[in-house]
Amino acid sequence: MKKTYVLDTNVLLQSPQSLQSFGENTVVLPEVVLEELDKFKKESSELGANARQVARYLDRLREKGRLNEGVLLENGGMLKVEMNHYNVELPKTWDKYTCDNRILQVCKGLQKDGNSVFLITKDIFERIKGDIVDVISQDFGGEQVPIYEEQYTGRIKVYAHPEKINAFYSNHQPIQYEDIMLYRHDTPVKPQLEINQFLIIHSFSNSKQTALGRFNGREIVPLNHLNINPFGVTPRNAGQKFMQEALLADADMVPLVIVKGPAGTAKTFYALAVGLYKIIEENTNRYRKILVCRPNVTMDEEIGFLPGTEEEKIAPFMRPIRDNLEILIDNDDECRYYNEKELKDKVDELFDRKIITSEAIAYLRGRSINRHWMIIDEAQNLTPKQVKGIITRAGMGTKIILQGDPYQIDHPFLDERTNGLCYAAEKMKGSKLCCQISLTENECERSPLAYEAATRM
User: Fold this and answer.
1) pLDDT tens digits, one per residue of 287-304
2) Of the listed ranges 34-38, 176-180, 297-301, 419-423, the one predicted with least confidence
3) What is the CATH number of domain 144-222?
4) Residue 114 falls in which region: left (phi positive, over 0), alpha (psi -120 to 50) or beta
5) Is 236-456 in the same CATH topology as 3-138?
6) Is 43 helix (H, G, I), strand (E, B) or coil?
7) For the chain, first and last CA: distance in Å?
8) Which residues are 361's β-sheet partners?
9) Rounded to 10 degrees, what is the CA torsion of 428, 273, 293, 239?
10) % of the chain surpassing 70 pLDDT
11) 36 CB contacts (<8 Å, ≥6 apart)?
């Protein structure tokens, strides 16, 4: 039996291609959805661009027939704009003139006509209300990845014979894939490795004897950058050593690094440290500058008409970056804050000399960014389309670092399965151009309180 999918406005605004994602079934747009889309058509934002994309697609379909009667799609399905079912009863306390309730009216009316109806919406409260009136409601799954616990972490724990580990350490002799094993429910199995996946290798005879390596697609090789302390920073745990290895890899080999992890695991701190090391200490002119973007000023938001330059408007969103820079440019914990003005001047100098710049993500669209060290902080608040737009801006010699905490999402229609950070991590898994690592709560280094909160709360 064919199904009928009723789409909410928020699905189209985030994923305009969703109209073509339901196979040989019927896709229904209540007329109120068109009204809501119309409100966004003039916006110079990602939402506006998506609304216009939907409008152009519907306009092409309109040439094939009347949308309110149904038009066949290329995939064998049908799209229809629904104008009826105004007399369908909803709970008396619900305002039937709101957009959400009008959509539920359409769903109930189509049900009464004998259709197998599914409401597709990213609005959790709309899905709850759907359950109340017996309408099956779902999130749009076209851009969903597995739940966070099942997502790729970029690291794995395996076991090998002690002589293999000794040769790995002393002679940098690679360990062959055939020589490693992992244990699942106390049963030895062969691991499925991805290229650039990091490994913690334990000895079969002594689990405290370990080595750290990376799978290059053929064999496990030692890490190349363990003895480097970028901008005076020393990695304190395995996760940070893996992160350092990924960040220090040449942009020609690994132009994309994805770091997921809870607060306090030094994601931003390390990305800035390695960027400053590459630009100031190595001084090879490999990178022109560090470009920092945070999606608090996103592709969906204008930076407004208040006085000031773009950087002045973005400055409040850059405070976490400045906090990290204060620690990096003065590593004396005892005396760092004795002279606040001197400390501020040192940080300001990095921005004044354009060693570090900040930019609204909205202005990345259409650019080709060459030879930049590009940090996208709080990337869990990006949509999949936004993160694709950012990664595809990378020109020759640019290194992009996507980082964030999938458990701290502020975007109203994103979660751990639909945010851009996790989406990029799953889609780029197995690419030789990407290294990624998920840091754990146990690797929190900010402070004892931060660690305690990360593990308890």
Assistant:
1) 999 999 988 543 344 445
2) 297-301
3) 2.30.130
4) left
5) yes
6) coil
7) 46
8) none
9) 40
10) 94
11) 9, 99
Say if residues 181 and 203 touch (Cβ distance below 8 Å): no
Quote the CA–CA distance of 394 and 225 in Å, as a whole number.
24
pLDDT at 309: 65
Structure tokens at 101: 């309730």
Mean pLDDT across the stretch 29-46? 92
In the numeric block, which tokens belong to residue 387? 């993160």
Q: HSE-up of 217 (CA within 13 Å, CB side)?
A: 7
Third-level CATH fold of 3-138: Rossmann fold (3.40.50)
- Parse the chain into domains and list their residue ranges: 3-138, 144-222, 236-456
Residue showing tokens 């994805």: 258
Backbone phi, psi, residue 455, to 5°:
-85, -25
127, 98 in Cβ contact below 8 A?
no
Structure confidence by residue, pLDDT tens digits, 227-263: 999 999 999 999 999 999 999 999 999 999 999 999 8
Measure the CA–CA gap between 217 and 203, rounded to whole angstroms: 22
pLDDT at site 308: 62
| Integer Cα distance of 139 and 141 in angstroms | 6
Structure tokens that stand for 62 in this block = 């309109």
CATH architecture of 236-456: 3-Layer(aba) Sandwich (3.40)
